[in-house]
Design goal:
This protein is mainly alpha-helical. Helix content is about 80%, strand content about 0%. It is globular.
């Protein structure tokens, strides 16, 4: 916690490269390609989003099930990303990112069957994916707001950013599915599934602690 406190700063909540931020702040009007690039870049390098997606598809084997859950996640984060920017959401980005970390913890516990053992009830994973997708969208909105982009051409640029996010998500998801496909064919998958989800849960707790530390020290 001491290390976290010493290293925490604004960069914790806003993973925005200074070069990208400076460029976006200088331009006005419609710039579809740059915003698509930024959206794709954010998703591919957004480890918190990728960890959640990894947890979501961990025990999904059929493409139609994967498509369903990924679509629910996309609907959630697309909706709140657009609304969040337009209403200039005032929620601290640290708290939003802490909730995103919580989504990773939740999915790992769900994969471990913890809710069934603890409460004798299995939550609706589809609804949970949609709800956490909404929070992930607010996380995206806080990043866009930090760009301080011009209001001229805002809607087309936001839509382009969202398309970029979906492209980045598909690219990242393809890589994850290829790796998972090879892993699932080995005997090690079932032996290490528990450990993998414990590691996933730990990563989620680290993200929560990282963001909450940033919130309190800033």
């Amino acid at each position: 916690m001491t290390v976290l406190a010493l290293t925490s700063g604004p960069a914790l909540a806003h993973a925005v490269a200074e070069g990208d931020k400076g460029y976006i702040q200088e331009i006005t009007g419609v710039h579809v390609i740059p915003f698509m690039y930024l959206g794709a870049k954010h998703m591919v390098t957004g480890y918190d989003h990728l960890l959640f997606l990894f947890g979501v598809i961990f025990f999904l084997y059929r493409l139609k099930h994967i498509a369903l859950y990924v679509s629910l996640f996309a609907i959630g984060h697309s909706t709140t990303m657009l609304l969040g920017v337009y209403v200039n959401v005032g929620v601290s980005s640290y708290l939003i990112d802490a909730i995103i970390g919580l989504s990773v913890v939740y999915k790992a516990l769900d994969n471990l069957g913890a809710f069934q053992r603890w409460f004798g009830h299995q939550p609706d994973t589809r609804l949970a994916t949609l709800i956490f997708g909404l929070f992930h969208g607010f996380g995206l909105a806080t990043k866009i707001i930090d760009y301080d982009i011009s209001s001229e051409g805002l809607l087309p640029n936001l839509l382009a950013f969202n398309v970029g996010v979906e492209i980045g998500q598909l690219v990242a998801l393809t890589g994850i599915l290829i790796a998972m496909g090879y892993w699932r064919r080995t005997d090690a998958f079932l032996r290490h599934a528990y450990t993998a989800n414990v590691v996933l849960m730990t990563a989620g707790f680290v993200l929560i602690g990282y963001q909450l530390t940033g919130y309190f020290v800033t």
